[in-house]
Request: fold
Amino acid sequence: MANARRLEVVFWLCTLLPFVLTPNYLSLASQIAITALFALSLDLILGYAGIVSLGHAAFFGVGAYVAGLIAKHYWTEPISGLLIAGVLTGLLGYALSHIVVRFRHLALIMLTMGFGLLIAEAANSAHDLTGGADGLQGFRVPGVLGFKFDMFGRTAYAYSLGLLFFCFLICRRIIRSPFGLALRGIRENATRMPAIGAPSLSHLRKAYTMAAVVAGLAGAALTQTTSTVSLETLSFGRSADVLVILILGGAGRLYGGLIGAIVYMVARDQFSGINPQYWYFWIGLLLVAVVMFLPNGILGGFSKFLKPKN
Amino acid sequence: MFSSAVGVLFDGFAYGMLLFLLSVGLSVTLGMMNFVNLAHCTFAAVGGYCTVTVVNRLGWPFLAALPIAFVAGALLSVVLERLLFRRLYRASDLDQCLVTIGIAFMSIATFAWFYTTEPQSARPPAYLLGSVELMGRSFGIYRLFLTAVGLAITALLVYSLEYTRFGARVRAAVDNQRMARGLGIDVDRAFLFTFALGGGLAGLGGALAIEVIGLESTLPLSVILVYVLIVVAVGGLGSIRGSLVAAIVLGITDTAGKYYFPWLGAFLIYLVMVALLMWRPLGLFGKR
Reply:
């Protein structure tokens, strides 16, 4: 256990390395931190509560648009914008959770996808509010807590990383609480858990709402650090990407989404320079290979490898 | 209003027939093996690209390309079933989704590699284009052709599933796989044939769809996949009748929505789907 603790400290210290080692890639590092936060939020429902979602980008995108609209029409102070985005996506998540947690299997996959598409389509239609296919532009978040967002992305990365770390600590606390344990129980057997005093549906609703809040925060941070929102934040492609990232890293392990985001985003950055169209071939191959040969993702493979053989 | 309604109904019906061809295979394989195959539209794209190649590069007639599209879709589905899918029948929904999304990703990149990302086209012969006047209205010949092909295939499917020994095996396997195995039915084989048939029909649908919805490398994960999934989920797994009804309703709703409420976009369709799924999660005609 002490060993695991040490590894965690080392991991978080390593996240500071980009400031020193790769100062030209800090905006990429910031994107990675945001994607990792988004993957972490999916891990809460998919990895721990067993809710498969093909429409998780809905919350990411709504958070992004809320933050963008606040910055454009009201004020540009980012932290309050972040909080409001989190609260609003949480409300949306809570409303949807009443429907989503009642379904399983194909109906669940179709419903989450349906809600995602519905919200994306609504944002596309509400051209006056969201800018439609052109995206939301014409605002700039100057800085946070007196630090300016510079062109090298130093403040942006510090901001995203700080948010990721904060949310990670909270998620870690939730997962290690009795509530987190109950979630895992529900994932394994949703009908037996009520018998030992864990109300399945209300627990799942809470988990879904929390995941929505975290996804909304991630979306809001993306808006504030890039000063633009596009419809892509709501797209099916983004929902699929985050699923791939989480599975690649290993679902149900907290660090899975973080590792997955680092591997995926760095690989995409490296490969897309060569041939952007064909990037998805390798992602597809990777996905098939991970499911067939590495069922618990990179982290699952590692922990099996590291475990002493008896 | 009324005169346009006839046109909308007709176009929507033809579109629904196309959706039926594209989705019926997925409905049966999903119902039979509980296999969530999100790569189903890859078969359609393969059929479409085969048609493009055969018509444009080899100069074959369009109608001769259709059987080839069928065979190509069927072949690919058999290969995938043997190599990958059969290992996943007992896996979770999520694993099935992920592997098939992975295949769809790979196929998109492969199509982009060989055919670029530009939309492709394969012109049907002149006698399938244009329109005919009937009782003072004009009907597109290609859409009449689509409707005829769709109805013919439905009749063929219903006949082969309801009145042949093969059909009896398939129905038994869909209804109760374990019982069917117990009675000595080779379920794996029945499934392989069904898979080939479904992939073939999707390939044929992909070929016929070029003229209606176009053909781009992103087809395997496009809005068409969503429509196919809607047909399957709303129609009910393993139900041919359900798929047919759902496909026609979807086709007409979509066409009418685009005609009368163009500002809604696809919003209406998604709304109908979500509402229907909430009302009947197993689909309109679903039993399980």
In short: The interface with chain A takes residues 30, 36, 84, 87-88, 91, 93-95, 97-99, 101-110, 112-113, 117, 221, 226, 229-230, 233, 237, 263-267, 270-271, 273-274, 277-278, 281-282 of chain B (CB under 8 Å). Strands of chain B lie at 131-134, 137-140. The two ends of chain B are 41 Å apart (CA to CA).
